[in-house]
Amino acid sequence: MAARRLLVAFLALCSGFSAVHGQKFNAIFSFGDSMSDTGNLCVNGPPTGLTLTQPPYGETFFGRATCRCSDGRLVVDFLAEKFGLPLLKPSKQGGANFKQGANMAIIGATTMDSGFFQSLGIAGKIWNNGPLNTQIQWFQQLMPSICGSRQACKSYLSKSLFVLGEFGGNDYNAQLFGGYSPEQASRQSGTIVDAIGRGVEQLIRLGATHVVVPGVLPVGCFPIYLTLYRTSNAGDYDRHGCLRRFNALSARHNALLQRKVSGLRGRYPGARIMYADFYAHVYDMVRRPASYGFSANLRACCGAGGGKYNYQNGARCGMPGAHACSNPSSSLSWDGIHLTEAAYRKIADGWVSGAYCHPPISA
């Protein structure tokens, strides 16, 4: 009997069509930025000076740098594993079979196209490799090889999981690093959220019926922001050590996005549009790190900067002299900008179970 159970489990895993709490998907299709990119930026060789292609990136799971911005796997990797699917190949990987999933996400991606940043006078502050519209075009180019005719795609994609983002982080980074205050940047939140909403609608028109729409993270708790915008005014920080103004920007974006998702649910009752709450989950990790097995919540695991947050732009993870902490799984932040594999695993768990995804992916 034990041998038979083992055989059944093995066959389910090999089929690439497994289930979590009864939920099955043909494939997973991912869009986004450095929180999700599994290699698109590096398929033609890593860009010169890109530190994340150097050790110790990737050391925890892959044993080498894979162009992922972490010490190991990302949320989308864990989602694929949970649903019995292979890790998503980058969509720019020529000759790959994408029937069980493809990842359009690319490091530096924004929601908005270049014209938006030009209109704000900050076009030079963004590394815009593939904004949301472009990523959806990449997906459309793959569709014939994935599912064939338009009608066949409608059926196939209706049984696939789409993860749209997060988007928005780099749209705000461009403004903040370009001299805008958080309050000034928040004036663009409605425009950015509207563009995300249009992206959701495009995917639904292509056949998607299961779409996860993540919000942005509490960037005021990230070592890069805590270092670059450090102040001597205690009132600028909340009781957990995060910068209030920057988290307020993230919170405004997320409130507008949740309202947008609610409206889209009413407009497309046949689709299951899920809001994934990156903010609440990561903030809870900052607030109660020990509950998640973390001993460090505001300090980067990897870097050579030292100081309170172990972050310096000129001594980032992957640069000469930088090194990782002895146990990355005890840290929330990997490199001051992105999270550790341990954090991404917990986030994926929250999305699947529904603790931080509404409704849960597994419903």
From TrEMBL:
It holds the Pfam family Lipase_GDSL. GO terms for molecular function: hydrolase activity, acting on ester bonds. InterPro entries: GDSL (IPR001087), SGNH_hydro_sf (IPR036514), SGNH_plant_lipase-like (IPR035669). Keywords: Glycoprotein, Hydrolase, Signal. Coiled coil: none annotated. Residues 1-22 form the signal peptide. Belongs to the 'GDSL' lipolytic enzyme family. This is GDSL esterase/lipase.
